[in-house]
From TrEMBL:
This is Pseudouridine synthase. GO terms for molecular function: 16S rRNA pseudouridine(516) synthase activity; RNA binding. Residues 1-63 form the RNA-binding S4 domain. It comes from Vreelandella glaciei. Belongs to the pseudouridine synthase RsuA family. GO terms for biological process: enzyme-directed rRNA pseudouridine synthesis. It catalyses: uridine(516) in 16S rRNA = pseudouridine(516) in 16S rRNA. NCBIfam families: pseudouridine synthase. SMART domains: S4. It is an enzyme of class 5 (isomerase).
Length: 234
């Protein structure tokens, strides 16, 4: 790998700033000052130091975040704080959310810089189940609750859609709290499904994706890296 590219991969420097740092004598290679940006290095064995700090390539990362409200999943800065702004890791801007959560939805959000792994989680072909807990505006009880459970299991026709939703599972935890398990990812799907049932979602929380549940020890805004066994679930 070229030295200037290595510097841009392992530090906050852009390629142009990396070249400037080299010219200014801020970089050593195996203990010797070096100024040639095109120098080829062995990323496994050579020692590159920038201003006294040894640099190393960042490998792929797999992150579980307990997403709070008023945090968005976009890469660009907008009206709200971004999910990646909560991740205190080098080159965190390379992390991409695995799927999306609305800005007012809380719960399990995965982030990674492994595109193939992300695709396995989100691809419709894999029908990865996602579980949401919804707080509802109107209670669902008795015959109305049974009707709603059946409608969700059969598939709902949503406004503006030409095909019904995939069969899903609705379980009532209380008259105004429902657990919904879905296997597809249409725009605002959970909220639209409850709207099709004549109800309104006051708040929404994602508790699990596939066999991976949100770590109960993570408070809103906290994160941790996935274990190897958790990564292997997908």
């Amino acid at each position: 790998m070229r030295l200037d590219r290595f510097l841009s991969e392992t530090s906050p420097l852009t390629r142009s700033l990396a070249k400037r740092a080299l010219k200014n004598g801020e970089v050593t290679l195996n203990g010797e000052p070096i100024k040639q940006s095109a120098t080829q290095i062995d990323t496994d064995n050579d020692v590159v130091v920038l201003n006294g700090e040894r640099l190393a390539l960042v490998g792929v990362r797999y992150i579980m975040l307990h997403k709070p409200v008023d945090v968005e999943c976009n890469a660009r800065r907008g009206l709200y704080q971004r999910a990646i702004d909560l991740i205190d890791l080098p080159k965190a801007d390379r992390l991409q959310p695995v799927g999306r959560l609305d800005v007012d939805t809380t719960g399990l959000l995965l982030l990674t810089d492994d595109g193939q792994w992300s695709h396995r989680v989100t691809s419709p072909r894999h029908r990865c189940a996602k579980v949401y807990i919804a707080e509802l505006a109107e209670p669902m009880e008795g015959a109305a609750a049974e009707w709603a459970i059946g409608q969700v299991a059969d598939g709902l026709m949503l406004d503006g859609e030409e095909t019904p939703t995939q069969p899903a599972t609705l379980r009532l935890l209380s008259p105004t709290q429902a657990e919904l398990t879905i296997t597809e990812g249409r725009y605002h799907l959970v909220k639209r499904m409850f709207a099709a049932l004549g109800n309104h979602v006051n708040s929404l929380h994602r508790s699990s994706i596939g066999d991976l549940a949100l770590d109960a020890n993570l408070a809103p805004g906290e994160w941790r890296e996935l274990t190897a066994d958790e990564v292997a679930l997908f």
